[in-house]
Amino acid sequence: MASVQPQNERNHVYRFSTLPQSETEANHHEEQVLSISTNTTIPTITDDNYSEEIFSISPRICEKIQDLLGLTMLMLLIFLPLYRHLGSPKQDPIPPIFNLDSMYISNFTIGTKGLAATWDAKFTITNTNVSSIYFCSIDFTIFYKQNPEDALSVVSSYPFYLDQGEFIKLHLKFMTMETADWVTDQDQPFVESNLVEEIEKDRAKNNGTLSFGIQMKIQAIYYGATWVSDVVMTPYCEDLMVHFLPHKNSGRLVNPNRNFSVPIHWKPLPFF
């Protein structure tokens, strides 16, 4: 007859150990002690394993670095000659034409508080032979006689582009501040008292005629047909004779439509 083992509702089979058949066997069964082994062997990780792993990775990293350096050198060999070519025009292009169309001075007063004046000037700038010029910044300075250090007023223009054959007309106003007003607006140059006295004496001596000059400082980018270059220009125009009517605080340029001399300096394009 086959033995049937007990099961629960999930068909799990219960297994029972056999009961001791005698008192001696029972005592022997009770004396058995449960033994748990704690001698578990854990694999130790030594520094040798790490050193072997690092040693196996290092050559791969070195190879990648060498490949990267080689690629960088190849790119420099290819692009540096091109960069020099882009920053070097084949011949010096003709600089733009800068023209002072007219200049009018009003509120020209000399007194104990210093010199005050309002300058109204009109300019024309023409690009004659370059594909395109971007005027990044253009600063104007009016000075007395032929000394740019004797600055009377400064002003700046907005940036603009000029393609080949194009021109732009600028209408600018300069302000010369009296000493008291200069304290609150120090963007304008300070006119020293000895210079104010010199201007007053020259006006009386020359029948109301004074000589001024204008200088520009320009940061620009030239775009040629196959090259690009940074450019610094410092156009200037001197001996601008302004005549003041007797007992009037206004004067006008006697010799209008004056062209500027244009020193020009080429700079290499910034690469790094």
Which class of secondary structure composition applies to the elements?
Answer: alpha+beta
Give the topology string: H per helix, E per strand.
HHEEEEEEHHEEEEEE
Q: What number of domains? A: 2
Shape: elongated
Q: What's the CATH architecture name of the largest domain?
A: Sandwich
What is the oligomer described by this structure? single chain
- Spatial gap, N to C terminus: 97 Å
Main pleated-sheet profile: 12 strands, antiparallel
CATH topology of the largest domain: Immunoglobulin-like
TL;DR?
The protein is α+β, with helices and mostly antiparallel strands.
Structural description of this entry:
With 272 residues, this protein is an alpha+beta fold. The protein folds into two domains: 50-86; 97-267, Immunoglobulin-like (Sandwich). The chain contains four helices and twelve strands. It has helices spanning 23-30, 47-86, 179-182, 193-205, and strands at residues 97-111, 114-126, 132-144, 151-157, 160-163, 167-176, 209-223, 228-233, 236-244, 251-253, 258-259, 264-267. Strands 1, 2, 3, 4, 5, 6, 7, 8, 9, 10, 11 and 12 form a twelve-stranded antiparallel β-sheet that branches. Residues 33-40 have low confidence and may be disordered.
